[in-house]
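Note to self: keep these together.
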Amino acid sequence: MEKVKLSVNVNKYALLRNSRGHDVPNLLDMIDIVIAAGAHGITIHPRRDQRHILYSDIIPVKEHLAAHHPHIEMNIECENHPEIVDQVLAVKPHQCTLVPVRPGEVTSDHGYSFPADHEGLVPTLEALRKAGIRSSIFMDCEPEAMAGAAATGVDRAELYTGPYAWAWGTADQQRETDRLFETAQAAVEAGIELNAGHDLDRFNLHPFARLPGLKEVSIGHAQISRALEVGTTQSVQELLRALDYEV
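Structure:
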């Protein structure tokens, strides 16, 4: 069985840099450290308010990975809006994850809904396919929604794991874990692969090593929060160990 890959979301490194107005920490240097620690991919999530990753970061990150880490996948998360999607199509990352946005949200907190979102997503997904970019869409852990996701022609669904993560260590943990696995099985049966992300950490990540159809997890906030305690290298390697890698 192929192991689940780890993509590290470096948005929070950019957020820290932006708060000072200069170039510390340097985003490309941090990407180098994350990759040296063993990460398989780099995720960035540009938003239209540019509160962390800036539009001006997109091309340098792509060029840096291509020049120095050609084996590392680049994943761009973004809303389905031409202002950002046009940049994705120009840059051609390995993967683009479309994420619905609610005005005023602090972070992504819900997935797409079908059939309501079908019509709006299909043209963008077709454009990504023509550009040779693997597509993914952000989805709640709802088994019944996987058929609707597959009907868009998307390659993967990224499971929103917030409720699962918040239930970890509580009486609801088993219920949310069961729902996670039921959703994964429904995705497999619908013919789409899976990614997952949101509030995953070195503790609640362990079950994901055996989740059906799962190809990749994307982790940012928990990784940098742990890095404040033990450093970037150890924080990344702890996540890899949770996915059954020897590091």
